[in-house]
Amino acid sequence: MRVTDLHKHYGPKHAVDGISFEVPAGQVFALLGPNGAGKSTTVEVLEGYRARTSGQVSVLGADPGRPTPAWRARIGIVAQSTKDLSDLTVTEVVRQFATFYPHPRRPEAVIEQVGLADDARTRASALSGGRRRRLDVALGIIGDPELLFLDEPTTGFDPEARREFWALVQLLAADGTTILLTTHYLDEVEVLADALAVIDRGRIVATGTPATLGDRDRAPATVRWRDAGGTWRTELTGEPAALVGRLHAAGGEPDGLSVHRPTLEDAYLSLLTPAEVSR
């Protein structure tokens, strides 16, 4: 996937304002940003559901602005919500979607993978929010896609279900599936993403990996402790281990000793405009 100087305008509003990025085959790429930043518009352009104003876009070697049925069969989409599926059971829905693809996965195996085996005969309309989200995921991967779009895929999942889903995504990635992920869960990004970009007000403000975003891997650590007199001390240092070692040598481990390095959330929030951070 290659995006070069992508613009999308709605009258005077520049929803996407000249962004560029590339996602190599087999990579899990996360697109991060606050609500209204341009993420959804960008993804819809890449999926072939929204026309761009200008710029060059190549997805699986084709222009998504001119999608063909053969091209659509190579991608999978897990959107934030799907339409009502009436009175079909989970198995019936997945089997129906399998007929849309030339080389689908086995429906029963997909249902098992997303943790819906116990609900296979349950009507889709009767599923709880989290279970319905699992069905959305099943419909996104039933076609055995080369490229998978995951838009807030674990919304409504409990912690155990999220970790099971992460394992499924890692399995798909290990099989060579390219994945574009949008999510507000930064722990999800740390677990799954090989690379990422942060978009704010229609522009990409940073790219990197979860470990290097905003140079957080090179940022100094904050060491905090209480000295013998009971006063709290704080020091920024690029060598926290050396400082802690000196403190130990001077009289054992100080009371309240803590070492804090910038988290992915710290780095992400530092890149956004103040108005977006306060939302």
Strand and helix layout:
Blueprint: E1 2-10, E2 13-22, E3 28-32, H1 39-47, E4 54-58, H2 69-72, E5 75-78, H3 90-98, H4 107-113, H5 129-141, E6 147-151, H6 159-174, E7 178-182, H7 186-192, E8 195-200, E9 203-208, E10 221-226, E11 232-237, H8 240-249, E12 255-260, H9 264-271, H10 274-277
Parallel strand pairs: 3-7, 3-8, 5-6, 6-7
Antiparallel strand pairs: 1-2, 1-4, 8-9, 10-11, 10-12
Characterise the protein shown here:
α3 crosses α4 (about 105-115). This protein folds into 2 domains: about 1-215, P-loop containing nucleotide triphosphate hydrolases (Rossmann fold), CATH 3.40.50.300; about 220-260. The protein has about 280 residues and is of the alpha/beta class. Helices cover about 30% and strands about 25% of the residues. The strands form 3 sheets. The protein has a 6-stranded mixed sheet with strand order 5-6-7-3-8-9, with helices on both faces. Strands 2-1-4 form a 3-stranded antiparallel sheet, covered by helices on one side. The chain has a 3-stranded antiparallel sheet with strand order 11-10-12, with helices on one face. The longest helix has 16 residues, at about 160-175. Its main location: membrane.
Task: Summarize the helix and strand pattern as letters.
Answer: EEEHEHEHHHEHEHEEEEHEHH
Apparent shape = globular
Q: Given this structure, which CATH class of the largest domain is correct? A: Alpha Beta
- Please summarize the sheet with the most strands: 6 strands, mixed
Q: Structural class from helices and strands?
A: alpha/beta
Number of strands: 12
> What is the residue-mean pLDDT, rounded to a whole number?
91
Q: Give the total of domains.
A: 2
Low-pLDDT parts are none
Organism: Quadrisphaera granulorum
InterPro entries: AAA+_ATPase, ABC_transporter-like_ATP-bd, ABC_transporter_ATP-binding, P-loop_NTPase
Subcellular location: Cell membrane
Membrane topology: Peripheral membrane protein
